[in-house]
Automatic annotation (TrEMBL):
Similarity remark: Belongs to the LysR transcriptional regulatory family.
Protein name from the UniProt record: LysR family transcriptional regulator
Coiled coil regions, renumbered to chain: 70-97
InterPro entries listed in its UniProt record: LysR-type_TF_proteobact-type, LysR_HTH_N, LysR_subst-bd, WH-like_DNA-bd_sf, WH_DNA-bd_sf
PROSITE patterns: HTH_LYSR (PS50931)
Pfam families the record matches: HTH_1, LysR_substrate
Keyword annotations from UniProtKB, A to Z: Coiled coil, DNA-binding, Transcription, Transcription regulation
CDD domains given in the database record: PBP2_CrgA_like
Occurrences of domain HTH lysR-type (ranges): 3-60
C-alpha cells in the first residue's frame, strides 16, 4: 500500500492533540477512520507509535522519533503541491526588469521573447541602464547587475558568466606590433569601458599572478559598445566583455591580444540577479528568474563552445 499523507496527517494530529476524538474533529473524519489510518501507518513502518494502555494517548519512543519526520514530510508535500499549482496556473502581471545597457541589448534581449511566448499573460518592462537603480524607489522586480558587491539585504543569484578579453584589428597590430607581454601595452593605444581615471590602470592575470600596467588612449567611453566600435575601426587595443567580441573574433575582424592573460576588472565575471525577499515570493518573478538561469546557462555554454 505504501505510506500516504492521510496516514501521516492522522498520526501527527493524534500526537499533537493527544487523542483520537480531537484529531478526528480537526481532520473532519470519524474516529474510526483516524484509528484505521494510524494502524495502517504502524503496519507500514512496522512500529508501534502510540501507547494505548492508558486513557490518555501517549507516544512511544518510536512515535517520538517518527513525529519530526512526519511533520517535515507533510510540509514538503504541501510545498510541492503549491509549487505545482503555481506552474499549472497561467501567470500574469507586469515584471519590471533592469539590466546593463550593452549586456541587456546583446544577451538578455535575445532570451526574453521565448519567456513571453511561454507566458502570454505576463508583461515585461525592460529598463536598460548602467547606473545602479534603486529597487524599492523605482519598483524594480528583478535587477540584473554587473557587480562584485551586491547589497547584503537583497536575495542574490548568479545568472551568467562574462569573460574579459583584449582585442584589436589585424591591421592595427600589423602597423603597431603585437604585444608579447603586459608591459608592452604601455606603448599602445588602449581603450576600455571607462568610468574614472583609475580605469587607465589595467590588471592582467595569467592564472598565477596579477600584473598591473598603466595604459593610455585618446578615446574614453562609458559604454562598452562604443569601445567595441572603436576597436573595429582600428583605433587601438580594447579591453572588452567577450559577448561583444564573439562574432568579430570568429570572422577575423578582431583578434585576441595576449590571449594567455585575462583582464581583471572592477565589474567582475558574473551578471548577478538581485531582488528583495518579498518580490521573490511573487510567482511570476520566480518563474522569470528560473527561466533566465537555465536559458543563460545554455547560451553561455554555446558561446564557450563556439569560441573554443
Amino acid at each position: 500500500m505504501g505510506i500516504s499523507t492521510d496516514m501521516l496527517a492522522a498520526f501527527v494530529r493524534v500526537a499533537e492533540r493527544r487523542g483520537v476524538t480531537a484529531a478526528a474533529d480537526d481532520l473532519g473524519v470519524t474516529k474510526s477512520v483516524v484509528s484505521k489510518r494510524v494502524a495502517q501507518l504502524e503496519a507500514e513502518i512496522k512500529a508501534t507509535l502510540f501507547s494505548r494502555s492508558t486513557r490518555r494517548v501517549a507516544l512511544t519512543p518510536a512515535g517520538e522519533a517518527y513525529l519530526d519526520f512526519a511533520r517535515r514530510a507533510l510540509v514538503e508535500v504541501a510545498q510541492a503541491e503549491e509549487r505545482l499549482r503555481d506552474l499549472r496556473a497561467e501567470l500574469s502581471g507586469q515584471i519590471r526588469l533592469t539590466a546593463p545597457v550593452s549586456w541587456g541589448q546583446k544577451v538578455l534581449a535575445r532570451q526574453l521573447p521565448a519567456f513571453l511566448q511561454r507566458h502570454p499573460g505576463i508583461e515585461v518592462e525592460l529598463l536598460l541602464a548602467d547606473r545602479m537603480m534603486d529597487i524599492a524607489d523605482e519598483r524594480i522586480d528583478l535587477a540584473l547587475r554587473w557587480t562584485t558587491h551586491p547589497s547584503p539585504d537583497l536575495v542574490v543569484r548568479p545568472l551568467a558568466s562574462v569573460g574579459w578579453v583584449l582585442v584589436a584589428t589585424p591591421a592595427y597590430l600589423a602597423a603597431a606590433g603585437t604585444p608579447t607581454e603586459p608591459a608592452a601595452l604601455a606603448s599602445h593605444v588602449c581603450m576600455c569601458y571607462w568610468r574614472e581615471s583609475a580605469d587607465d590602470a589595467w590588471r592582467l592575470n595569467d592564472g598565477g599572478r596579477v600584473q598591473p600596467v598603466r595604459v593610455r588612449g585618446r578615446f574614453h567611453a562609458n559604454n562598452p559598445e562604443a569601445v567595441a566600435e572603436a576597436a573595429l575601426a582600428g583605433l587601438g587595443i580594447a579591453q572588452l566583455p567577450d559577448y561583444l567580441c564573439t562574432e568579430a573574433l570568429a570572422d577575423g575582424r578582431l583578434q585576441r591580444v595576449l590571449p594567455e592573460w585575462t583582464p581583471v576588472t572592477s565589474f567582475g565575471t558574473r551578471i548577478t540577479a538581485v531582488t528583495t525577499p518579498e518580490r521573490l515570493r511573487i510567482t511570476r518573478n520566480r518563474a522569470l528568474l528560473d527561466y533566465l538561469a537555465e536559458a543563460l546557462s545554455v547560451a553561455g555554454s554555446a558561446t564557450d563552445a563556439a569560441s573554443a
